[in-house]
Write a structure and sequence with these properties.
alpha/beta, eight-stranded parallel β-barrel, TIM Barrel, globular
Length: about 300
């Protein structure tokens, strides 16, 4: 099995101004990530606007991502849904494309109880041969996958890890403890850019990052420093980008990150309703920050 750790990008889905998918820019982004040291790609995760891509587009973007990555880095298919059957269907189709991993977000809006979450993820894991990475992001789904449920799901051999986006030190410590007690090879990935360095210092294996869209080499470097236990150096480098992490979420993701990538010249200004382009009130602050980090020039 390919090694899933370090800096993994939650890749945006580039779009033309009319909202159609820009596959040429997707190819360029993937080639850039390979050069910059990104460890893996999440294709059509929530940052990739999975909620507004239709079924054909969803699978086509995953297919193209696998093609463009050309076996140079693993592709994790974002095939979660709040319908268990839809998640299974998307996951099966991704498996048929040659994908080895799937990221499964907790069902949004439904607000299932913990037993419902357990049965949802087990149904997906039992239906396909893909390695399943759970994804917990309560701020977006109104649903929290608790450590006690993760502990039960860890027993399934196809459920290999979790992306935990709850920025809570106790949650981080609880999951690290579970990993140590129950399954050392279970993969812990942060889903929160502002705290990912801390999480890796505590024992997480890496991060699925929005920030890695704009600073892939930096995120890869911080991850490597943490993996090699050079924590002081990692903290110093990480602190230089805290303002970027904060501005990435000044409006609902991926509004800010797509606007930044457009300013950097990597993608066109396309995003799908109900999301819209970054509000003008943030333009000056974001441009100033990108200039200060030498990501664009004045």
């Amino acid at each position: 099995m390919q090694n899933i750790q370090g800096s993994i990008v939650a890749l945006v889905t580039p779009m033309h101004p009319d909202g159609s998918i820009d596959y040429e820019s997707l190819k360029s982004l993937i080639e850039w990530h390979i050069q910059e040291g990104t460890a893996a790609i999440v294709s059509v995760g929530t940052t990739g606007e999975s909620a507004t891509l239709d079924h054909y587009e969803h699978i086509e973007v995953i297919k193209k991502t696998i093609e463009f990555s050309n076996n140079k880095l693993p592709v994790i298919a974002g095939t979660g849904a709040n319908s268990t059957q839809e998640a299974i269907d998307l996951t099966k189709e991704s498996a048929s494309l040659g994908c080895k991993f799937t990221l499964q977000v907790t069902p949004y809006y439904n607000k299932p109880p913990q037993q419902g979450l357990k049965e949802h993820f087990l149904a997906i894991a039992n239906a396909t041969d893909l390695n399943v990475i759970l994804y917990n992001v309560p701020s977006r789904t109104a649903c929290d996958l608790l450590p006690v449920t993760v502990e039960q799901l860890m027993e399934h051999p196809k459920i290999i890890g979790i992306k935990e986006a709850l920025a809570d030190s106790q949650r981080i410590h609880d999951l690290v403890a579970l990993k140590g007690q129950k399954r050392q090879e279970f993969i812990l990935l942060s889903g929160d850019d502002p705290t990912f360095c801390y999480a890796m210092q505590q024992g997480f294996n890496g991060v699925i990052s929005v920030a890695a869209n704009v600073i892939p080499k930096v995120c890869a470097k911080i991850s490597t420093l943490c993996q090699t236990k050079n924590f002081d150096e990692a903290k110093v480098l990480n602190m230089q980008y805290q303002s970027l992490y904060e501005l990435l979420f000044c409006q609902s993701n991926p509004i800010a990150v797509k606007w930044m990538l457009n300013q950097m010249g990597y993608i066109k200004p396309g995003i799908r309703l109900p999301l819209i382009e970054l509000d003008q009130s943030y333009h000056n602050a974001v441009k100033s920050l990108l200039e200060s980090l030498s990501l664009i020039h004045a």
